[in-house]
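Batch job 17 of 40 flagged for manual review because the log was empty.
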Amino acid sequence: MPLGGLLAGKAAIVTGAAHGVGLAAATLLAEHGARVLLADVEEAALLSAKADLGDAAVAFTADLSDPAAPGAAVAAAVDSFGGLDIIVNNAGYNFNARFADMSDDAWERMLAIHATAPFRLLRAATPHLALAAERDRAEGREVFRKVVNVSSIAVMGSAFQANYAAGKAAVVGLTKSLAKEWGPLKVNVNAVAFGSVDTRLTRPRTPDNVLQAGAEQVQLGLSPKVVVEQSATIPLGRFATAREAAGGVFLLCTPWSDWITGQLLFVSGGQTFGMSA
């Protein structure tokens, strides 16, 4: 990975970084000079990603729905890099069910990973970001730091995903509130709403398409019928690649987004679900 670049000297955390958009985002950050802590629950895939990124990356294995894990991830990043400039809250999965059949566990798990885990991670990062902002002010510098939370076009409503949509809507509220509160710290807080991206979450549901969370396997994917139906709703004509989707995250991590905050950026190829966000 290059020593220079647009993000040279920046330190980042990317959650859900072993696969898909998280891995693509972490790769883009590293390609442009950032050092990245990769956080994920799937250790084997995480170590493979770290090996690919080399010295630019540090691996941190944890289930971020564990209350202690987000704070530990922040501490590991600060210990490894000496500071923190970029946070990408990407970790998540779907746990679909017909609403009348949705269990309390299925509801709570989606809120835990999509809303509560980002909340805890950002809360743990607060003193580090505040201290850095205070130091910058004392030195007469203006330095912008970045938070990108991953949401979804499911915020417009998604049948059989009430739990997932609720979690993704909650993180938008968190984003907009923190953008106001952290403005004086020169922290840009934004979110991206992904449409259909070619990842494990949107590929056909097969026995081997699973998330390995410790001893538990979580079934991922969609029915083949839904995959075809969703493709037809995208004006650009196909699902995004993970790297194309990660481009939206990368934009919001660069200096070109210094005057963008509190926004929900749709990275969807024009795909919508027909209701306003």
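Reviewer: the log was empty due to a logging misconfiguration, but the result itself is present. The first helix runs from residue 20 to 31. Unflagging and moving on to job 18.
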